[in-house]
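Weekly modeling sync, notes
Attendees: S.R. (lead), two postdocs, one rotation student

Agenda item 3: backlog of single-chain predictions. S.R. asked that every request posted to the team notebook include the full sequence so nobody has to chase files. The rotation student volunteered to paste the first one in as an example of the format we agreed on. Action items at the bottom.

Example entry:
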Amino acid sequence: MTYAIETNDLVWSAGRRANAFRLDEVNLRVPQGAMYGFLGPNGAGKTTTIRALVGLLRPKSGRIRVLDHEIPRDIAQALSRVGYVPERPHLYPSLTVAEAIRFHAAFHVRWDQRWADDLTTQFGLDRHRRITALSKGEIGKLMMLLAMAQRPEVLILDEPTDGLDPVVRRDVMMALIEYVAEHDATVFISSHLVHELERICNWVGVMDRGRLVAELPMDAFKSGIKRLRVRQAPPTPGDTPFVVLAREASDGLSASEVWVVRGWQAPMSQWFEGVGASLHEVVDLDLEEGYVELLRTFRRPAA
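Predicted structure, as returned to the notebook:
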């Protein structure tokens, strides 16, 4: 498999104090052409990881490759093929929309002015309005326009729809989906809006406390995490064909437990018979429920 973005044992620290935030051996694998959703709660390390990918932070150790370019060594070559929308806009407030577009166009040899004009109309942006007079939704649309009009092979988007109303969010995401469909681009999009990524992404990575908790295809994530109701469960699971994320006593039934497992497949139900237990129910979890259970399990040893 070819990867558009790849990190190996990426480590970064905000300082030398023992309690300083750090990225701890992050190993990302973003397949070429994927819509990769980068999930995690606020403060998980999503923005820090993205800033390292685009050369704004220098790792303490590890390796970063974007489109086969080493970062930060080949940052200029990499960024010429990457569209980036940061968490916070980086626009000069005194410029008009048209001036901001011309300013950004000057830095990109692949800039498509015709498409920039089409997006300006599609997004309903007033070319003559100053950025300082734009709403948050209009600024979000302009940031996406500037990233996509350079015709990038990879789009790295840090919470691009955070704080936008549903109508604006839908306009932005539809333009993104159309671009990916036409150009087979790779999208790496971070968000804490789980349901938004569930609709558009085919890969998912989950960050928490500076570590990559999970990374797998979206279908495998959604179909492989289940809630099981088990009677006469063994005291310790032992060697299971699935990963036990959590197990709790079921209310009102002393001999019954609720297990949350990852990597489930239907034939695995036979395992319970072999250990003297019985499986009474298998419940599908949506992406948000699976995501929450992953975080709960990851945090449990520290708690």
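Discussion: group reviewed the output briefly. The radius of gyration is 22 Å.
Action items: rotation student to repeat for the remaining queue; S.R. to check formatting next week.
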